[in-house]
Specification:
The complex is a heterodimer of chains A (137) and B (324). Chain A is of the alpha+beta class and 137 residues long. Chain A contains 4 helices and 5 strands, in the order E-E-H-E-H-H-E-E-H. In chain A, strands 3-5-4 form a 3-stranded antiparallel sheet. In chain A, strands 1-2 form a two-stranded antiparallel ribbon. The longest helix of chain A is centred in the C-terminal third of the chain and has 41 residues. With 324 residues, chain B is α+β, with helices and mostly antiparallel strands. Chain B is built from 8 helices and 7 strands. In chain B, strand 3 and strand 4 form a beta hairpin. The chains are: A alpha+beta (137), B alpha+beta (324).
Chain lengths: 137, 324
């Protein structure tokens, strides 16, 4: 299961110990990473770790079922290549269908995150106002 | 909307994964091993021991077996679905073949039963149309039509003929050469001397013999007979071959002895299979012989009647369905 968790003992304050990623988010993240160019599973995991400042650390093996599923659906395609360390690795590449899918998912994510943000902001304002009223009493 | 439809269409038209399940397993194992080894190298670079690096790599990666199984299931899902679909279609096809075969078999059985019923109906209709049924005679040869009449009449021809039975012929037809030739296809016997005992209603008997070669007719005492007698309805003709050598005449016989000899010969022959009406005609003719001036011994007539009755009885038994 994909998850977000504290990356190292040095930054325990960033997130609770373990938080589940929203369903479908992993696919969105993988497609977004592949938008920058073909990569293998290990490379994708490393990019996710680096771009999220090591906040998002999926159990890296869980990337593979997601990658294989995306490949079966035609959003990515793969080929075997030889790496710089002379190892055989499977590289994934975004297809045109995958690009379109990514755009759709990004728009959807923007709407969702915006809505969540608005709800949270409203809640904070209400809470702050209530606190002020309590203090004045 | 259109893009989604195009994508679905592309996914459908995508060529199937042609790798074998073993190749899929190997690819997945290679892919995961590459990742785990990379994680190990990372830990080793951070100063971990080889064992520690391996443990850390597995901790970060997750359970490789579970992940391998999940990838394998996804990669082979399409094939598994196709195999299931194939199995289901095969079963359906087999069922369809079995159902079709059963229907064809039933239809054939129905057709056969209908044909048999039709055949029986036709036979029954033929018997109704012609009360004088012919037991063993599949065809009734007709003699040339005489201008005197168009109505048919029946004549029963028995004795030393190869095709005993009832024959229809036009009213006014004359005694035998034609009718006997039709009933006897044996060329050898048709070349010699033949004697015909004609039993008419009322116990009247006429005996005529003739030579096939000369075409002349005689009485039983070899007295020449002029012309051929006209046949009557329900005449019974008992035929016997006289076996005279070529160019010779058979020994003359008084009419009563000729009749007796014919009956004796009739008793030696296998009983003819006759239809009910023909059998009744023959039995009536034999009974009426008792009152004839040429009456043969009663014992001879009784034996002939018994022979006919016995043949009718055995024929009836043969027609009965076999008991289980």
């Amino acid at each position: 299961m994909a998850s977000a968790r504290s990356s190292t003992p040095a930054s325990p304050e960033r997130l609770p110990e373990r938080a589940e990623l929203l369903q479908g988010t992993l696919d969105l993240l993988v497609l977004r990473v592949l938008q920058t160019g073909p990569n293998h599973g290990y490379g994708i995991a490393r990019r996710l770790r680096e771009r999220s400042d090591e906040v998002i650390l999926v159990e890296e093996g869980t990337l593979y079922p997601a990658l294989h599923r995306l490949e079966r659906r035609g959003f990515v395609e793969s080929e075997w290549r030889i790496t710089e360390t002379n190892r055989r690795a499977k590289y994934y590449r975004l297809t045109s269908s995958g690009s379109a899918r990514l755009e759709t998912e990004l728009a959807s994510w923007a709407r969702l995150s915006g809505a969540i943000e608005r709800v949270l902001t409203t809640a904070r304002c209400t809470l702050g106002k209530a606190r002020l009223e309590g203090a004045s009493l | 909307m259109i893009a989604a439809a195009v994508h679905q269409l592309r996914a459908l038209l995508r060529p199937p994964d042609r790798r074998s399940p073993q190749e899929v397993d190997e690819d997945v194992a290679d892919e995961l091993a590459f990742h785990i080894e990379a994680l190990e190298r990372e830990s080793l670079a951070d100063g971990a021991s080889p064992d520690g690096a391996r443990a850390e790599a597995l901790r970060r990666f997750g359970n490789p077996e579970r992940i391998r199984a999940a990838c394998r299931r996804i990669d082979l899902e399409e094939r598994i679905m196709l195999q299931r679909l194939n199995a289901v279609l095969t079963v359906l096809l087999l069922l369809a073949v079995v159902v079709l075969g059963l229907q064809v078999y039933r239809a054939q059985a129905r057709s056969t039963a209908l044909l048999e019923r039709l055949e029986r109906s036709m036979v029954a209709m033929a018997e109704v149309a012609q009360p004088k049924s012919v037991a063993r005679e599949p065809q009734k040869p007709s003699l040339p039509q005489t201008p005197a009449s168009q109505s048919p009449q029946s004549v029963l021809v028995l004795g030393m003929v190869t095709r005993p039975g009832e024959y229809e012929l036009p009213l006014g037809a004359v005694l035998p050469p034609d009718i006997v030739r039709a009933a006897d296809t044996n060329e050898q016997t048709s070349k010699g001397w033949v004697e015909c005992v004609r039993l008419q209603s009322g116990g009247k008997v006429q005996i005529l013999r003739w030579d096939w070669q000369s075409g002349e007719a005689f009485t039983s005492q070899n007295v020449p007979h002029r012309g051929w007698p006209v046949l009557g309805t329900e005449d019974v003709l008992l035929i016997r071959h006289l076996g005279a050598a070529k160019g010779e005449r058979p020994p003359p016989l008084p009419a009563d002895q000729a009749l007796e000899a014919t009956l004796q010969e009739f008793l030696q022959l296998p009983a003819p299979t006759l239809g009910p009406s023909a059998r009744l005609s023959l039995q009536a003719a034999l009974r009426e012989l008792r009152s004839s001036p040429l009456a043969p011994p009663d014992e001879l007539i009784d034996r002939a009647l018994a022979k006919i009755a016995e043949a009718a009885s055995s024929s009836a038994h043969a027609d009965e369905p076999a008991s289980p």
